[in-house]
Amino acid sequence: MQEIRIPVSKxxxxxxxxxYVSDAINSTWISSTGxxxxxxxxxxxxxxxxxxxxxxxxxxxxxxxxxLALDIRPGDEIIVPSMTYIATANACRYxxxxxxxxxxxxxxxxxxxxxIEAAITTRTRGIVAVHLYGHPADMDxxxxxxxxxxLTVIEDAAEAHLATYKGRPVGGLGRLAxxxxxxxxxxxxxxxxxxxxxxxxLAQRIRTLRGQGMDPKRRYYFPVTGYNFRLTNxxxxxxxxxxxxxxxxxxxRKQIFSWYEERLRPIEGIELQxxxxxxxxxxxxxxxxxxxxxxxxxxxxxxxxxxxxxDTRPFFIPLHTLxxxxxxxxxxxxxxxVTNDLCRRGLNLPxxxxxxxxxxxxxxxxxRDCVSRR
Length: 374
Description:
The structure is a single chain. The protein is an alpha/beta fold. It contains 13 helices and 14 strands. Helix 3 runs parallel beside helix 4 (about 85-95) and helix 9 (about 245-265) runs parallel beside helix 13 (about 355-370). Keywords: Aminotransferase, Pyridoxal phosphate, Transferase. One of its GO terms (biological process) is polysaccharide biosynthetic process. Its EC number is 2.6.1.102.
């Protein structure tokens, strides 16, 4: 097998990242206090149009901390899409709650509001609206369902940095939102995350739980059991450098998406990620699906690309089929045909700032050859 020469993702660190990290190191403020943390939290809250943003050590922790702050407990149920990364469901289990899986909307691949209503029980406490592959979920409808039923909405915006819904940025569309800054995300510090909210009391609870449970008004007094979920000033320095180039980074990715769309859209047997008219999608990883009438399957196309040193990533395996969750899912008789179909046929193609148009030409030519073979 040929060595990978075009990865599916890699970070864009071509700005002032090294300068800011060096400054953080030279200042000796390398732990969970420092000017870069303050700068990042202020700027990110502004980008989300929220009153607060709290940096944490990764996106999974952000979800866990959100559920702790909302006092979700053992025996509670949280409605989540099955078509998402496993962290969304794992975080429910961390607090003893049960993830209840529902299908996605074929028109946007995000959690289907009409399926949410059917899944609500007396034990339901909340809904996690995942903005999948950079596309915002139908938040107005989801929030309306939540309000009628007394539920809390968490936005899982791990893949949707700076996406917008009806002109509003993600991050401020639910009671709170969680983000990831893992190495393959649009903005990254290697490992990192954030929670955004405009609820002052909730923000204070999140900060307290994040910092070992210490009373903010009395040092080294701990009124609650807390966690060490903090981000370092060094990691925040990376994020500050990333965010100040956000227009440049997003612009490059939009160009990459445009190149892919221009070349792949005419290919019979290939379908692209749908997009609603009232959203701005974050160009994270480029998505395509392979129709069953194509000459080659999703996995066969991925193998053809791999033989040329080009890496890809299949869509997530449906969570309701995975060992930690499938027994409870079977008891509920979960029926998720859209999720099952998309996850079987979906493929992510290489997406990063310095991939070239020539690289994309080659990728798309291989895809064309694979699906048109007779």
